[in-house]
Amino acid sequence: MAGSAALSAAALARPALAQGGPTELSFFYPVAVGGTITRVIDGYAADFSRENPDIKVMPVYAGTYQETLVKVLTAHKSGTPPTLSVLLSTDMFTLIDEEAVIPFDGLIRTDADKAWLADFFPAFMLNSQTGGQTWGIPFQRSTIVLYWNKELFRQAGLDPEKAPASWVEHAAFAEKLTKRDAAGNVSQWGTQIPSTGFGYWMLQALAIEAGEVLANQEGDRTFFDKPGVVEALRYWVDLAQKQKVHAPGIVEWGTTPRDFFEGKTAMMWTTTGNLTNVRTNARFDFGVAMLPANKRRGSPTGGGNFNIAKKSTPAQQEAAFRFAKWMTQPERAARWSIDTGYVGVSRATYNTGTMKDYVAGFPAAAVARDQLEFAVAELSTHENQRVTKALGDNIQAALTGGKPPERALRDAQAEAERILRPYR
Prior knowledge:
Layout: H1 4-13, E1 23-29, H2 38-51, E2 55-61, H3 65-78, E3 84-88, H4 92-97, H5 111-118, H6 122-125, E4 129-130, E5 133-134, E6 137-149, H7 150-155, H8 167-177, E7 179-180, E8 186-188, H9 199-209, H10 227-241, H11 256-261, E9 267-271, H12 275-281, E10 286-289, E11 299-308, H13 314-327, H14 330-340, H15 353-361, H16 367-371, E12 375-376, H17 384-399, H18 405-420
Parallel strand pairs: 1-2, 1-3, 11-12
Antiparallel strand pairs: 3-11, 4-5, 6-9, 6-10, 6-11, 7-8
Organism: Muricoccus vinaceus
Keywords: Signal
Pfam family, one: SBP_bac_8
């Protein structure tokens, strides 16, 4: 990556921002995962504005990712969108279809800019680029990982240093870790996979491990009813309904970490974005591992990208680009990863002394990065909110026993096909 001298030269080569006061940069940021990070974002905004007095960054905390998207699109339609926003990388096609964002390519002018862009992990760019253009810049990105309680493993006679490596092991470990009284009442579940909010994401992980992807890269076709996807949902359903090692029905995304902290579940599948939250709040030794494999290893990527509003001035767009680039410089990206648990978004992040020292003392921080070798793009299509809702609703129908997995996925595929046919 370019050094400070090169960056200074690059800055001089860039167009000057408007004179007569700092350019105001409105920045919508979602607060959606465990841990309070608004103070961190406020600190970065203040630091950037001190280093760049021609730009004033104004963070706005807009709720969940879904709420933030609605607010951004509403503001876009009214003509006053935030210049910069962090939205799910999977919203890329929606933002393009709404003509709400610009590609970054026109702002990438120097060799330093090109080197910066080329250093992001390729798996993260799958949900950031389409049609030969870059529509989002990876910022708080993640994969799904497995967390386990080492103390509960030890109590169950399992090796506390060994996570389940396969679906078979995962189910077998969960059986040993589930605690029932004489009446069959469960006080501790073996495993927990949340199904609200991001149920489609969890199913996608299982489908990848069963050898299937849920959609094409063009975002206009889904494969929800493929045999491997059915196998994936059946495995998930069977953990609860057949093997009874997973809580029945719907498991909440937001309360899953708390259930883990309270010993209500011995294993959980969730985002690496919860890593710092778990490290801070778990009162026991815990492990972090790649997800168990079936036909292969795998996880979808996840998390949010920086996006720049089309309905903003050239000066605002330039300011937004400078802030996004500043936020993703290796040392800062390393610090952000440590503070939040998100994956460092570039190779250079893991070559910093800061990150090397952190990983040496806390090897779990490298698990999500290493899993990128097996990662695929998160499910992303045109009208992504409607498509993922159709899938999520049918996943929940299967988990609650309302539909068998085969029918649930046929219904989800039929609805997705209806939504996406016009885009082909």
